[in-house]
Amino acid sequence: MALNSSLPYPNSPAAIPVVATLSSPFEKPPPSQDGPNGSTRKPNSLWPGMYQSPVTNALWEAGSKIFERFFLDPPKDAPPQSELLNKTPSQSRTSILYNFSTDYILREQYRDPWNEVRIGKLLEDLDALAGTISVKHCCDNDSTTRPLLLVTASVDKIVLKKPISVDIDLKIVGAVIWVGRSSIEIQLEVIQSATDGSDIADSVALSANFIFVARDSKTGKAAPVNRLSPETQREILLFEEAEARNNLRKRKRGGGDRREFENGELNRVKTLLAEGRIFCDMPALADRDSILLKDTCLENSLICQPQQRNIHGRIFGGFLMHRAFELAFSTAYAFAGLVPCFLEVDHVDFLKPVDVGDFLRFKSCVLYTEVQNPDQPLINIEVVAHVTRPELRSTEVSNTFYFTFTVRPEAKATKNGFRILNVVPATEEEARHIVERMDAQAFLSTKGVISK
């Protein structure tokens, strides 16, 4: 496939090829990794963060010189970067290519039961690529200075625009589009076209924007990053749009997380609670087209392992998204009774870093449904990740994820009279949370903060 020809970046570097990290039982063992002088080079698979996916491995191979700085301990008195550089988006632009059409083992690593790409693994790959791009932008090519600590701060809405086949080659292209004092926004596009030379707008299957923040690796405080100099009209437009989104996020944070409800909103809360109270007080008379929110909940837990850490020793943000997605998908499946179809991930803030050894609990629920369009009913899932420390009797929220699903049309067609239930709260806290989420989603959509 001539994927390069359809990209809007004519000067993009060659795509990094992704190959399977698992060996076929029918293939011979891979050649040794001896160095040019006969010395044995440390396999990339032994570095931190190299157990995640073929993409992580491919990125490491391609940018090992950049990443080695993050593992070589600089002198204790190593100074921070003294002078900020001006960099262009093209200097950080990176693309990776999945050769699904020719690599059978790679295809099997990403295949889901419906012959499409596993979205959870793709979310993990997007985070890995965004991290690589942020490192490329922040690198000062000076081995005497201490490198920055770069962490995923948030992810803007990730929108799936069309199904992603696992039989057709796939490319992800990303670059820095905006830089603040210590924050970086990276835009990623997942590109897959069924025919050569197809229009780029029709080839973009998924889009996402990741925001990373830089911290001084010694003090832990916010650190300035290299400036960005957009060159093309498209790059200037993307920079201005990202600047507007950043200003809107600041205004939203300045208003506080909690707000007073107006009369109209209080009436909506009371309306939501009215049916919930019937479920609690008179269950035999409850609306059979509704279900209590608490009856849609699922939960799982895990201990974070060293194999899930990134180059800074923290758990991959992409790994957290992967696990949250899998639970959200299961929640939607159990709720609808039919195979769900993923549509989007809403804005995600990474509130607290997750460390190796942390006891992580994911709790999910169907927050609310939208059934105005019978052809595409929407199921809105909330997944909250808690870092739990039993020995301290404490638990803290690390991340909250909001996923939107519908039902696969081919699955819905097999079930006559299919319907999606309404979700009703049993407590005022649940009702207020539902109204807040509905309003937040409507506000962000109308203001274009997450439009691409």
TrEMBL record:
One BP annotation, GO: acyl-CoA metabolic process
InterPro entries: HOTDOG_ACOT (IPR033120), HotDog_dom_sf (IPR029069)
UniProt KW keywords: Hydrolase, Repeat, Transit peptide
Spans annotated as Disordered: 23-48
Biased composition annotated in UniProt, kind: Polar residues: 34-43
Residue ranges of domain HotDog ACOT-type in the record: 96-218, 294-411
MF terms in GO: fatty acyl-CoA hydrolase activity
Domain of life: Eukaryota
Family recorded in the similarity comment: Belongs to the acyl coenzyme A hydrolase family.
Annotated protein name in UniProt: Acyl-coenzyme A thioesterase 9
Naturally occurring in which organism (per UniProt): Pyrus ussuriensis x Pyrus communis
Top-level taxonomy: Eukaryota, Viridiplantae, Streptophyta, Embryophyta, Tracheophyta
